[in-house]
Design a protein that fits this description.
Mean pLDDT: 84
Distance between the termini: 46 Å
Strand order of the largest sheet: 6-7-8-3-9-10
CATH architecture of the largest domain: 3-Layer(aba) Sandwich
Radius of gyration: 25 Å
CATH class of the largest domain: Alpha Beta
Structural class: alpha/beta
Shape: globular
Number of strands: 22
CATH superfamily of the largest domain: P-loop containing nucleotide triphosphate hydrolases
Low-confidence stretches: 237-245, 302-307
CATH topology of the largest domain: Rossmann fold
Number of domains: 3
Strand content: 15-25%
């Protein structure tokens, strides 16, 4: 069905006078009608692999065989037709999947018309798809007005509208809440089981481990391991208690077409390996041992791997009557086309210095719209908004821009960097603009680059970054600007677990060390921090609000992992 052999992908970088290696001899074999996942750390080459499989990019070398066709040898015209007929592609960002100004129905019609279907037959196919995906009520909505969850369901419908035998999905649920993640997962399962569609999903979300037949680990541009369902159940899905009491760890590695063996970092760390490793064959007991050439005394006493420790968050106690740094009263937001929609309905909020607020709620509840208004990006609202004691409205645009430039940082879901510039160039440009902030930066730039594992790619164009790398770089940029208010929209989405902990650790330390405040929109309830405020938005209103005690965070984590309904 799908077979990759020794795939390399090298991106020339004229600015540096050298090239960037994204894939370096990667193999992959996927059986027909399989449902598999591709996992690995941010920047490992997962998204590049999907783009090569889809024909959107050509490999530098190696063979790409899909449906018994060597697609790397096809002419551009034949490749276009092959892709249109056989491959559905679901990007991790919905705005890459849909035309924002067109309706849902129009977006669904486009692939069918490209295949030569008549408008009448196409409309019938679209009606069936709307029904199957349970999005008929959205048919006349413009794509730009959809929530993230609605956008991904529509994107999935577009990817499958021509009934392709293969679906490639890049982090399809990375920015969705639990409910919508489950909806997409069930749709994918049904498509795989009922239609026999072969599905490859790139994801950091362990929710996929329970449904896929295999998971392929990509590491440093190579296939590092292939985990079967049994491997996943035995090793990756074991409980926290089991991990604490375990006396051994099991790793499964892959030998690729070059006879290279992936050696997990955990093994390198334990054996203190540098440039060499020794293999010892014991014929008497019929076992092979892996050793450090310097001897067994090199073995390190290393504890079980731990996440970055998040220091305790303790908000500052304020005297009664302290002036809020942000306050909104009876905030309303309407969308008037094509139908009147009330997105935010009477929101009242005060933000005091040194506060950490988590804004949660289902997709479509108005969270991102709320941040757009608070940041001054959207000034078309009813009600009142004050930032640092000054009224914000469309009539004082210059004040809004000044406050945003000097005292606020907004990390949107769409990343805040110029793709055609390197990370170094981006940082130098923005920090030159924000000179006053740079002088009072809480963190050193070099420390952040190293801590967020970005120090080795500062000379690369941001366009070549993975989404996880872009998100970490944008977060780093925000901290270096030393804002008094951080507005963060899904800052941990599309990040692996270690990097999620790093981001939240930096955020808590920054707030505690500077007295700044942050509002964090998130669907990742495992990121909630004890002693923070948690506000739930539902249907554009504040439905509930509370302080997140340690017991509450533990309860939420247990409910989240056990797939139970979240109790507030």
């Amino acid at each position: 069905m799908i077979k990759l052999e020794a795939i390399t992908k090298i991106y020339p970088n004229p600015k540096l006078g050298r090239s960037i290696v994204a894939l370096s001899g990667c193999d992959l074999a996927v059986e027909e009608s399989s449902f598999v996942s591709i996992i690995g750390p941010s920047g490992a080459g997962k998204s590049t692999l999907l783009r090569i499989l889809s024909g959107l990019e050509q490999p530098t070398s190696g063979k790409v065989n899909v449906l018994s066709q060597d697609i790397d040898l096809l002419t551009p015209k034949k490749l276009y037709q092959f892709r249109l007929q056989n491959i559905g592609f679901l990007n991790q960002m919905p705005h890459y999947n849909l035309f924002p100004e067109l309706s849902v129905e129009q977006n669904l019609l486009i692939p069918l018309r490209l295949l030569g279907e008549s408008r009448e037959k196409g409309k019938k196919v679209v009606e069936d798809a709307l029904e199957r995906m349970e999005i008929k009520h959205l048919s006349q909505h413009r794509a730009k007005q959809l929530s993230m969850g609605e956008s991904m369901r529509v994107s999935l419908a577009v990817a499958l509208i021509t009934n392709p035998p293969i679906l490639l999905a890049d982090e399809p649920t990375g920015q969705l809440d639990k409910k919508n993640t489950q909806v997409i997962l069930e749709l994918l399962k049904a498509i795989n089981q009922q239609e026999g569609t072969t599905i490859l999903v790139v994801s950091h979300d362990p929710v996929y481990f329970s449904v896929v037949s295999e998971s392929f680990l990509i590491f440093n541009g190579r296939l590092g391991a292939v985990y079967t369902q049994e491997d996943l159940n035995e090793h990756l899905l074991e409980g926290e208690q089991e991990k604490e009491n375990q006396t051994k760890e099991i790793f499964v590695s892959h030998i690729d077409s070059f006879s290279y063996l992936f050696l997990p970092n955990r093994i390198k760390e334990l054996l203190a390996l540098d440039k060499k490793v020794k293999f010892v064959i014991d014929y008497e007991i019929k076992k092979v041992f892996l050793e450090n050439p310097q001897g067994s005394e090199a073995f390190k006493e290393v504890e079980h791997p731990q996440f970055v420790k998040i220091s305790g968050f303790h908000p500052k106690k304020h005297k009664k009557g302290v002036t809020p740094i942000l306050e909104c009263k009876n905030l309303q937001k309407w969308y008037h086309s094509p139908n009147d929609q009330l997105i935010l309905d009477g929101i009242n909020l005060q933000l005091l210095p040194s506060e950490l607020v988590f804004l949660i709620g289902p997709s479509g509840s108005g969270k991102t719209t709320f941040l757009n208004i608070l940041s001054g990006m959207d000034l078309d609202f009813n009600g009142s908004l004050e930032l640092f004691g000054k009224a914000i409205s469309s009539s004082n645009q210059s004040l809004v821009e000044k406050v945003r430039a000097q005292k606020m940082y907004y990390l949107s879901q769409y990343v805040n960097l110029y793709p055609s510039m390197t990370l170094d160039e981006n940082l130098n440009y923005f920090l030159n603009v924000h000179k006053t902030q740079k002088e009072r930066a809480f963190y050193e730039k070099d420390f952040l680059l190293h801590f967020l594992t970005l120090d080795e790619i500062t000379d690369q164009d941001v366009a070549k970054f993975s989404l996880g790398e872009r998100k970490r770089a944008s977060f780093l940029l925000g901290l270096l600007q030393a804002p008094e208010i951080l507005l963060l929209d899904e800052p941990t989405a599309n990040l692996d677990e270690m990097n999620k902990h790093k981001v939240m650790s930096l955020l808590v330390d920054y707030i505690m060390g500077t007295g700044a405040s942050a509002i964090v929109v998130t669907h990742d309830l495992l990121s909630l921090i004890p002693n923070s405020r948690v506000i739930m938005l539902e249907n554009g209103k504040i439905a509930r609000e509370r302080i997140a005690t340690k017991e509450f965070c533990t309860k939420i984590k247990d409910q989240f992992l056990s797939k139970k309904r979240i109790g507030f």
